[in-house]
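PROTOCOL LOG
Step 1. Enter all chains and additional molecules of the complex.
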Amino acid sequence: MNGDASGPPHRTFLDATLPHLDAIYRVARHAAADPAQADDLVQETYLRAFTHFDQHRGENTRAWLAAICLNVARSQLRRAARRPVEVPASEAGDLAGGLDEVAERVIAALDRAEIEAALARLPAEQRYCVVLMDVAGYTAREAAQILGCPRGTVLARAHRGRRKLARLLAGTEACHRAGGDYGRP
Amino acid sequence: MDGHDRRLAVFLAGDLDDATAAGFDEHLISCERCWQAVREDRAGRAAAARLRQPAPTELASRVRLAVEQANGRRRRQPARLVLAACVLLLATAVAAVLALARPDWPVDSPAIAAVVTAAHRMPAPSAASAPGPAASGQPWTVLAGGSHLRLQYYLLDGVELLVVHADRPFAMPEDARPVAAGAMPWALTRDGVTLYCPHDTMLVAAAIPAERLAALARQLPEG
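Step 2. Run joint prediction.
Step 3. Record the structure below.
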């Protein structure tokens, strides 16, 4: 892609990548070991992308950047030997019952910090799928490309991650259960 | 994830065709488990979507600056490489010049150096005269490195020789070699002149091979 580009290479790079800054920031915010380091992760992602820009063929720059961001985040996590505390599958599954509309309203009232804390507790493969698709706005196909796994796997992991996230958030507040089929088709 | 959940994930992704999706809608009315899964999926997705926030306004400037700085470093890198190559080339050239300028023998003691200098000033051999060594000119004395050297030119078998006697032993230079295996006398060559040391306070110099010089030196008078 970049052999055809005219002008200084960094200008071409910035023109191609800066429009995706919001998406990369959203990915970085939930992939970083510490959300406060999201800005650093974004900068490192862009610098690494700039270094390898001549190898990028120009196909889906947004997905290419997200893949770099996740790789950098994984490396940093490994170096820091710090991983968010993940919820064992049994713990989220043991939450009694499912959601009702009161729980849904409670979730809607939660602030971002509580949602972020719950999201950080998801297993990494589920968290990456939820972040890519629901937070950063990537399609399942793009997420599959970024994560290097089949699209069906991404859909299944995102589904499990969303359900676990909802249950964790419902358990965050004392929910008074109320019956009803709010929203049922 | 069982088949139920897998079908649910496909339904939620909108991958089912219209007829199948309509059938799944009907299924949700009667299947509490699937309905619960759908609600949880939607609630989780809605919660995650609330985390969609734009990047901080200053982040774009920070990234732009970092990339521009990286670009500057990248541009300077070839110049630094060229500079390093030039320095290396210069160092190699200097080393080569020094190696060429350096004599291929160790630095001699003042006494040896004085003998070599005197040997280069040796007069051309005159016509052959009577057999045996014949002194050429007058002897003279030189003080070199604390040694008193007495020098005298001789003509022997048509060869001009320089004979040197010292009041101190000549130190054997590093590159000197014994004339015969295991023998004390040694010889070396300096700038076309052969020096032969039959014993530690005598040196004979001439522009002839060491073996012939040794043979001529045997005919010279002692001390």
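Step 4. Note key features.
The two ends of chain A are 48 Å apart (CA to CA).
Chain A touches chain B through 58 residues (CB under 8 Å).
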